[in-house]
Each structure stands twice: as C-alpha cells, then as structure tokens.
Amino acid sequence: MLTSGRANAKAPFFWFIFIPALGVMLWLTIYPMITVFLTSFQDYNYISGSRSWAGLANYVDILGDKVFRTSFINTLVYCIAATAIEVLLGIVLALMFYGEFKGKSLFMILMILPMMLSTMVVSAVWKTLFHYDIGLLNHFLQLLSLPRAGWLIDPNMALGSIILVDVWQWTPFAFIVVQAGLASVPQEIFEASVMDGANYHQTLFRVTLPILRDQILLLILLRTIDTFKVFSKVFALTGGGPGNATETTSYFIYREAFQYFKLGRSSTASMITMIAVAAVSGIYLRKILNTKEV
Amino acid sequence: MKKTILIILALVTVAGGAFAQKSVKLVIAGRDGDYGNAMQIAVDAYVAKNPNVSFEVLKLSGDDVYQKTVIDLKTGTGTYDIVLIDDPKAMQYQQAGWLVDLDAMFKRSGKPVDSDFISTVIDLCRYPNGPKGRLYALPFVGNVSLFAYRTDLFTKYGLPEPKTWNDVLVAAKKISESDPSIDGISFRGVKGNPILTAFLPIFWSFGADFLDAKGKPTVNSPEAIKALKFFVELSKYGPKSTPMNNTAQIRDGLLSGAVGIAPEVWPAWLAKLDDPNESKVAGKVKVTKHPSDIKKSSPMNGIWHTAIPAASRNKAAAFDFLTFLTSKETQKLMVMKAGLPPSRTSLFEDADILAKYPWYPAIRDALESSVARPRTLYWAEIENTMGAFVQEAVIGQKTPEQALNEANAKLTQILK
After folding, report:
1. Is a pLDDT exceeding 70 seen at residue A293?
2. From the candidates A61, A133, A231, A265, which should be mutated to test the interface with B, based on the most B CB atoms within 10 A?
3. What domains are there in chain A, each with its CATH number?
4. Chain A CB contacts of B388 below 8 Å
5. What is the pLDDT of residues B218-267, one digit of tens each?
6. How buried is residue B125: exposed, middle or buried, by Cβ count under 10 Å (0-12/13-18/19+)?
7. Alpha carbon A59 to its chain's center
8. Class of B21-143+302-368 per CATH?
9. I want to staple B342 with a disulfide (CB 3.0 to 4.6 A). Which of A193, B227, B347, B410 is the partner?
10. What whole-number distance in Å separates Cα of residue A28 and Cα of residue A22?
11. In this structure, which CATH number among 3.40.190.10, 3.40.470.10, 3.40.47.10, 3.40.50.150 belongs to the domain B146-301+375-415?
C-alpha cells in the first residue's frame, strides 16, 4: 500500500534511497546547470583560459546575433511542424490500425523500425535519397514529368526536408503511444457510445480523443523537447546550410562551444534555449498534471 | 619447496618488470579517410619492427580531432601520445605550450632534423613560423590543393591550356554549353571549410587577403569582391547540387567523367585517377597548380602536423614513432599504398612514385607556390564565418558585396 510523502519522510529506508538519488541529481543536473548559468555571464575562452565577468554582454550579443536569431526561429518552426505532423499522423495511424487484424505483429515491427535506427544512419540514407542529381526522390519526380526539387540545396526547402526525415523517423513513436492509450480504453465505452446513437465523428471527438488527452499531451511534450534539441540531422544532412536555412540553436551552441571554444557565449545560448524549452514544457506539464482541466 | 617457489616468484617478477618496461602503448589522435588508411599502414609497418609497441589509432573527422585534442591537451590528461593538427590551428597548440619541443628531442637523440623536408612545409611546423622558430611538429602530409581538367575535352573544344582564371571560366562555359551531360566545373560547396577551401586559390590570386599588416580584416576589399563575383559566375557552370557537394561528389564526378574542370582537388583524392579499373578518365586528366590572375598561382597549403603532447607519458616512444612516420621509407610506403602526398623533396623524384603517379611533380610545384592560411588563434571561427557568407553569395541569397561586407564586419567583431 502506498503511504503519504510525510509518512515516507520518517522512514530510514526513504532516506537510504533518497540521499544517493539526490546526490546524483545534484551532481549531474543541478551542478552543471548552475555552472552553465554562471558561465553565461562570463567572457570565457577555453583555449586561452581567459575568463572575466561580462554581466549581460553575452545575452545582448547573442540576442543581437543574426545567426542565432535565425537559428532560434528555425528551431521553433522545426519543433512546431515536426511535433504537430508526427502527433497528427500518429493519431490517424493508431485509429486506422485499431483492433486486431492478421499480421499485426509483423506490421508493428515494421512500423517501429525507423525509430530503432541511428539518426546518423537515417540521415546518411536520406541524404542520398535527397540528392539533386542522383537521388531517388528526384528520379520519381522526373518519372512523373515533374522538375527536380532542391531538397537540401534550396534554402526554401531544406528545413522542410529535415522535418520530413524527423517525421519519417518519429511518427512510429507517436503511433505506439496513441495505440497503447487506445488499447487501455475498455471496448465497452466505444460500444456504449455507438448504442447511444453517436456516429464515428462524435465518438472520435467526444469520447476517444478526450480519453486520450493525457497521452497526447505527454506525446506532444516529449516530441517538443526532443525536436527542440535537433542536432544530428542538421549536422549530417546540411551542416546548417544552405546559407543559414537550417541553422538550429543546438548547432549554434555546438559550434560556439566545440569549434570556437567560447564557453561564455555557448552557455548563454544554452540558457536562452533552455528557458524557451522549459516555458513550452511547463505549459504542457501544467495541463497534464491538472487533470480537472479539459 | 619454499625456496623453489620463491625463486619462481622472483623470476616472474623480474621478467614481468622487464616486460612492463619495454611494452608501450601509443595512442594516436588521427584522421579518418585516406589519412587514417595511411597512418594505419605506417603503424603496421612500425609494429612489425617493434612488436613491444602497440597502438590505438583513433580515426576522427577534422572537427573531432580538433575538439578532442584541445580538451585533452588543455587539461593535460595525457590521453594521446601523437596528435594530428590541421595547419592553421597549429599556432593555438604551439602558443599554449601544449606540445613537446622537438628541437630538444632531436638534440637529445643525437639526430639532426632531416633537410629533405620541403622548406616551406617544415617552416610551418616551427613557431614562430620560419627557419628560426622552434620545431613543435613534423609534417605528416605535404598536402596542397591542386587544379584538374580534362585534356580530351579541352582538345575537343579547341580550348587553350588554362593559364589564367579567365581561361577557366571560358572553358567551363564552353564545356557546359556543348555537352549537357558534363558539368563544366565542379567544386565543393558545403558551407564552412569546404566552399572556402575551393574559393581561396581564386581569392588569393585575385590579390585579396584576410588581414592587413595590422591584423585588420580586409575580406571586403575590391580585389576580394571581384574574386567572389568571379567565383559566383564560375558556379553557374557547375552542378545544381554544388551547395551540398563535398569530397566524395567531386572525386566521383571527376573519376566518372561527369566533370570537365575540378578547380580544387587534393592529392589523396586522385590516387586512382589513372587506374582504368576505377577511373573512366585514365590518362585524360591533367593535374597542375592553379591558374593565376593579377597575382601568381595560389594553391592552398593544407599540410597536417604530427606532434607529441607535452602531457604524453610516452614521449620517447612517441618520438621514435614520429621519426619513423616521417622517414623517407615510411612516406614512400604511404604514397605507394595510400596515395598520401609526401612532405619530402626526394620523394618527388622517386622513380617508383613517378611511374605510379605521373602527375606528382605538380604537388611539389604547387607546394612551392602555396599560400598558408592566416596564422591566428581565431581561424576556426573565421573559416566558418567566411565559408557561410561565400556560400550565401553562391546560392544567390546575398550579392558578393553584401556577403563580404557582412563577413568583414563579423571578422572585425571576432578579432576585436
């Protein structure tokens, strides 16, 4: 039987398991976060070792940096578009393949295959598919007598192409989460709504989706956090180009920290990104934790 | 019985101690691709002669080797015994005192520094650069960018040998317009290092430079703008995929006969150029140093340094391997087996090498007139910044003037 937090607090076993967990949390999460926060106010060059207090100069500098602003907007577009498409497709697929059918196990294995692959492998495959001259996608377009598309070389298309790769890789995750949510709903609820005369549209929007609300919010939260950190796909597919069309905040931070070794600026960019992710995540978390709110 | 056991234990201890003293493991922070293959060949040859030395060769990308070595050398952890350093970044390592003074090690060993190394190359391994600086590295590879063009196409279309960049533009246009299946020209267009490396021989030979005598950025000079305008014009006769083309696409394009002119190629890419099993253009490509404009031919010097970190715990063993790696015999082995360009003068006259790679004299020629990238602690940032703006001009997002004015402002900010 579960006991209250107050009762737990008195038990020696509680402290026995709580203190090591707290220690790990302080060491691996809180300490680095405090360090990054403090470094974000410093002019710190790792190679030369020069480190001085800079106040808000890094924040002013980074927020005024054209490349960072472009990176931030690209990241937002990527995050919103990829999350929305993946969640919508996940719901549609889960509804389409609801219930038992022949070959479901094999189908499920095939469905989750993309998310089991390494992102670098996925990116390498898609890079070949996207190639302007020899890519399969442009080959198909030409078979349909359509002009070839500059999937990764056209600044107006490149970000969309990376979103497409993310959708291909992570829609299966959305599908599985929604599918698991659907499977946990007793069949009788749907049968009762049908007996009460509800059509498919009414059952979907007044019964199914409200029941799945928490799973969908959790899914949106997880995909938002993940897509906001996009790095590997940009690194492997475009390197941030063409121009700055696919620059993202993670890629910006990586370059500042590990190519220029400007740890002050990279910490500042990290803090700004973290605040943005925390703000968005906070909204979703509030909705998930507040079960009365619909 | 007790006595026998004691004797055995003593023998085991002595033998173990002797073994432990002799057995050494060297960790190399090296490169991937052709450089990695060449390093492995050298390591295998060394181990065959020195079975007590074992190796861990890390084959890393250019960015990875830089990150890992900077972090390790700065903290003095001593993970690596040999490190590979890209030429323009060498100054950071030398200035920070992270590397072993090889002049002192040569003195202790009683061996002189071999005079066979190409002087323009070995001078870059010294700090300050030049014959009077202290030696902190030895040149692993005498790399330099080269210019390649299809002689059969030039003959077919009655084009003169490209002596100037304008000849190149005329030829690229003619080839593109005459044969739609062939790209008149093809160069690396990925933003950052690749596109900038392709652009630099034009930039320099048009009389432009990164910094003036006072260290102030000058990348928006009239010469630089003229060079970028020319580069943008040249790119019109290249494939549409240029902004995502990198090493593999240029090499494959040249070897498959789909490219008329490759204005930026590197010796290791061309190892199979004249092999009819691998190349459709065997015997039809001339490799040479770059054309000139108002200034002389300006190929980019792309040597890689090999050095011993000051924190290495196996300096003596590392020094022995380093001298083996850069010896004439090992360099010849790496040339013959992996196509790695040497940094020694004598190997450019070696009959075996010339028989396999008839175009090798072009490397020496290019090395002798090569231009080194600016010696600054901020090269990584300058390269990425310039490489981004040059690409924006090539894809038409900015005019050459806009791109270089913005690049100059950004460089001023970086160097302030």
Report:
1. no
2. A133
3. 61-289 (1.10.3720.10)
4. 67, 240-241, 243-244
5. 999 999 999 999 999 999 999 999 998 999 899 999 999 999 999 999 99
6. buried
7. 25
8. alpha beta
9. B347
10. 10
11. 3.40.190.10
